[in-house]
């Protein structure tokens, strides 16, 4: 996953100054890249991997068309990403992930499924937001199953904190949405508190507890299905920028 910003980062409604990151919300793992994933880097990577650069992206140039763009932060092995991109061919998906096996796995899916509406930046999404995304340029953002950092002493490493959300909301167009999902109830409660505390967001859920029904486009992954069978819950939160 990605880094939260410093607690000194201003709110989305204030002038945006460069942030200072002090705590990482991800740990780089040396996972094994399969032969198929390595081949996907070679065959598919040149067309679908974007280098990190401290310059604002021109989405029309990057995707070869003008279309609503959705940011995904931390896509894991890309199963849900590929499903959603195939379901929504009229939208562009800009996907950030730091782990090489996951990037290779999504590149493999892109090649197999002919998904032309995905681009990947293998870099910290906080810096991508900071330098590569213009204010009010996104139609939506997805953060699915970020690392919950279960131990209380590690909670400060959780991705979804108020400064990061303020930064992300500043990149959403009015009417754009933020969809988060987690299978860890204490984290769901924290996310609900953080999103509810952002002045430029409103909850789309009318449920008393504030959680949303699973949107039709988010698939049940193998991992999630396994958890549900074990009695684990899943919480979706969908907020809209005002």
Structure description:
32% of the residues lie in helices and 17% in strands. The protein is α/β, with parallel strands linked by helices and 242 residues long. The protein has a single domain, classed as Vaccinia Virus protein VP39 (Rossmann fold). Strands 3-2-1-4-5-7-6 form a seven-stranded mixed beta sheet, sandwiched between helices. The longest helix is centred in the middle third of the chain and has 14 residues. It starts with 34 loop residues before the first helix and ends with a strand.
Summary?
With 242 residues, the protein is of the alpha/beta class. The chain is 32% helix and 17% strand. The chain has one domain (35-241): Rossmann fold (3-Layer(aba) Sandwich).
